[in-house]
Amino acid sequence: MLGLKLATDPRWVNIVESNIEEILTDHAWCEQKAASNAISLITYNSELEELVTELLIIAREELEHLQMVHDLIKRKGLTLGRERKDHYVNELFKFMKKDGSRKDALVDRLLFSAMIEARSCERFKVLSENIKDQELAKFYRDLMISEAGHYTTFLGFARKYTDNIDVDKRWAEWIEFETSIITNYGKQETIHG
């Protein structure tokens, strides 16, 4: 369903399990950034009523996920660390087209958002199926379902708001680009790392 070409090696979970505090801290900040991304899209596209309505729901869900991760961190007696840079997301950001119309920029930003949600969903699936901690396995399974919904929402809006972009072709370019960079990741105890 996600169309990703390279799956995460399940052995990545061994790295994650070596430092649960780090993965949870990174995950919390990923949720914060996802909420901020949705709010930013609303800010720049406030005239698109349906987009605003749906992205308000996503922003709220992402903040709820941040709360859930923070609660989990506290229950486990861990500490929410400082915000982390997400090098994977930064590389994807560079792939976004900066020219064209305002609507073209919106479509590419939506595809960028869909890509992040797709990889997050895939990583949550790998965690849910391979992590030994059963509380975390269930937690990541539930979040995987939510991320899949966000992915389809962003992709759907990209198709809805395009004027002259072949969204399927551009999405294929995003998939190819993501495939070219993801081989550099899966080596750290971070959601995208």
Automatic annotation (TrEMBL):
By its UniProt entry, which Pfam families does this protein fall under?
MiaE (PF06175)
Question: Which biological process terms from the Gene Ontology are attached to this UniProt entry?
Answer: tRNA modification
Q: Which domain of life is it from?
A: Bacteria
Molecular function (Gene Ontology), one example: tRNA 2-(methylsulfanyl)-N(6)-isopentenyladenosine(37) hydroxylase activity
Q: Locate the coiled-coil region(s) and give their ranges.
A: none
TM ranges are: none
The name on file for this protein is: tRNA-(Ms[2]io[6]A)-hydroxylase
